[in-house]
């Protein structure tokens, strides 16, 4: 599991560790890991000896890390130059080591020639706001030939704690981070600037508290959560999920939500809505009912909202489902039709699955604010509605109303930006709720499998929502195989 901590927590852990280490030892550990990562990239693209490396050095410890790493590369035969953005505030020890190793300090980008690597050590995890104009111009000047960029700890100009980007920021091919991940490395839009991530162990682990601020599940974590039927399982033990979806205008939403539920391992699906004929034609095993949902029969969880539209009875159906004493997932039109007070007073779990536009409507704010501040938005939604919230988008986030780490889904892909994909996710997550997974686990596993399924369905080609549904069993097998 990838775990991320706030700047304040990282600073405190570093201070505690430095009290037990010789002076400068922590920075040397970071520099050694950074130099190794730079060397790996240079070897993949040619060689270390004789390569041409430029360090962009700011005034903080990140600049010191870059200088010490540059010294190590220079001792391996690389031609390393440093451009100091604040010459009078450059890290003294790092600068001395860099010069002693044969590194050269330059005044500007002119005359540098072709570079093999740029190391971004302009700002550190304490930086706020985007890059200053002079730094922006410098970054553009030295990367216009698409020179590979490695950022030190995080790309300069992004917000470490939130993943927000206020202004210009470095776009790195890779980021080498130290001790632990920072939230901004895992959450868009900042994560989009980070490139490939490499975590360097500097001994910080024992100093970091529980729980982390963010966490991202990996294969082993998801495999441990997957509900697998036993020898005595029947359809009720596997979980029966009710699906209230579809309308005359959007009949396909019903089919896709049911597809996600069945592919997600539900023992049975009870469908309620006007799309019964389409559902039965595609899935004869589905159990259909004219409604209301409370009269449809026994279920362990409900999914309500995909494609409901504004037709007669849609709002009543949402209210009926929210009155049930089982876990409920609300998506799409259901989010628009729900009564906030009814959600907040439920005793059974509720999962809300908005995209940015729906989240903005629920919060009474602009979509752009949600997209630029995803972590703030998902936490606010969970607290305001006393629910588990799965905020869909370029980074899918899952938050609870209680004080648990926000989860970040690492399997997202742009191929999921297709009509009906969210309906599949709703059915899939609903099946996991019906199988007995806790709401945060169901949402996290659902998002993880959903992303993998899109990759299986697309195989590098455009993908439809039905492709995503059909890819779920393969994603499930992948996770179980590790």
Features:
single chain, 41% helix, 482 residues, seven-stranded parallel beta sheet, alpha/beta, eleven-stranded mixed beta sheet
Question: Can you walk me through this structure?
Answer:
With 482 residues, the chain is of the alpha/beta class. Helix content is 41%, strand content 15%. An eleven-stranded mixed beta sheet has the order 1-9-18-17-16-15-14-13-10-11-12, sandwiched between helices. It has a seven-stranded parallel beta sheet with strand order 4-3-2-5-6-7-8, with helices on both faces. Helix 4 (92-100) links the parallel strand 3 (79-84) and strand 4. Helix 7 (219-225) crosses helix 19 (465-481), helix 14 (356-363) crosses helix 16 (374-385) and helix 17 packs across helix 18. Its EC number is 4.2.1.136, 5.1.99.6. Residues 10-210 form the YjeF N-terminal domain. AMP binds at residues 392-396, 422.
Short description:
The chain has 482 residues and is of the alpha/beta class. It has helices spanning 7-18, 25-44, 61-75, 92-100, 133-143, 190-194, 219-225, 235-238, 251-263, 276-282, 314-322, 333-337, 340-344, 356-363, 367-372, 374-385, 421-434, 439-458, 465-481; strands spanning 2-4, 52-57, 79-84, 104-106, 117-121, 149-152, 174-178, 196-200, 214-216, 240-244, 268-272, 287-289, 301-304, 328-330, 350-352, 388-391, 397-399, 406-408. The protein has an eleven-stranded mixed beta sheet, sandwiched between helices. It has a seven-stranded parallel beta sheet with strand order 4-3-2-5-6-7-8, with helices on both faces.
């Amino acid at each position: 599991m990838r775990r991320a901590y706030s700047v304040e927590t990282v600073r405190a852990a570093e201070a505690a560790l430095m009290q037990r280490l010789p002076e400068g030892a922590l920075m040397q550990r970071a520099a050694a890991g950074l130099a190794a990562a730079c060397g790996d990239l240079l070897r993949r693209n040619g060689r270390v000896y004789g390569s041409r490396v430029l360090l962009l050095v700011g005034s903080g410890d990140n600049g010191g890390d870059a200088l010490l790493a540059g010294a190590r590369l220079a001792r391996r035969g690389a031609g390393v130059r440093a451009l100091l953005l604040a010459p009078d505030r450059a890290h003294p020890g790092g600068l001395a080591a860099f010069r002693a190793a044969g590194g050269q300090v330059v005044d500007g980008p002119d005359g540098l020639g072709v570079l093999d690597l740029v190391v971004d050590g302009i700002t550190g995890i304490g930086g706020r706001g985007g890059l200053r104009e002079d730094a922006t111009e410098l970054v553009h000047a030295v990367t216009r030939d698409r020179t590979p960029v490695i950022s030190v700890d995080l790309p300069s100009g992004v917000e470490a704690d939130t993943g927000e980007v206020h202004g210009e920021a470095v776009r790195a091919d890779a980021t080498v981070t130290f001790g632990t991940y920072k939230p901004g490395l895992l959450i868009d839009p900042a994560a989009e600037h980070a490139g490939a991530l490499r975590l360097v162990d500097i001994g910080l682990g024992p100093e970091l508290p529980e729980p982390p601020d963010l966490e991202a599940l990996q294969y082993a974590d998801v495999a441990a959560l997957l509900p697998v039927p036993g020898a005595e399982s029947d359809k009720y033990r596997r979980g029966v999920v009710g699906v209230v979806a579809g309308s005359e205008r959007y009949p396909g939403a019903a089919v896709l939500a049911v597809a996600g539920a069945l592919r997600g391992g539900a023992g049975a699906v009870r469908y309620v809505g006007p799309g019964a004929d389409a559902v039965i034609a595609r899935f004869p095993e589905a159990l259909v009912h004219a409604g209301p949902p409370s009269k449809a029969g026994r279920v362990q969880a409900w999914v309500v909202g995909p494609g409901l539209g504004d037709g007669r009875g849609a709002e009543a159906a949402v209210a009926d489902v929210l009155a049930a004493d089982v876990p409920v997932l609300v998506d799409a039109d259901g989010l628009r039709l729900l009564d906030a007070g009814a959600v907040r007073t439920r005793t059974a779990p509720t999962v809300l699955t908005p995209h940015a536009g729906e989240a903005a409507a629920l919060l009474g704010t602009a979509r752009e604010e949600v997209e630029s501040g995803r972590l703030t938005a998902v936490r606010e939604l969970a607290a305001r509605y006393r629910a588990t919230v799965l905020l869909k988008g370029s980074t899918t986030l899952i938050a609870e109303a209680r004080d648990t780490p926000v989860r970040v889904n690492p399997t997202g892909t742009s191929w999921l930006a297709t009509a009906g994909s969210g309906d599949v996710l709703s059915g899939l997550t609903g099946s996991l709720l019906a199988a007995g997974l806790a709401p945060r686990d169901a949402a996290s596993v659902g998002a993880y499998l959903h992303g993998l399924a899109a990759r299986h369905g697309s195989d590098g080609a455009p993908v439809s929502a039905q492709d995503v549904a059909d890819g779920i069993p393969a994603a499930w097998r992948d996770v179980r195989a590790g």
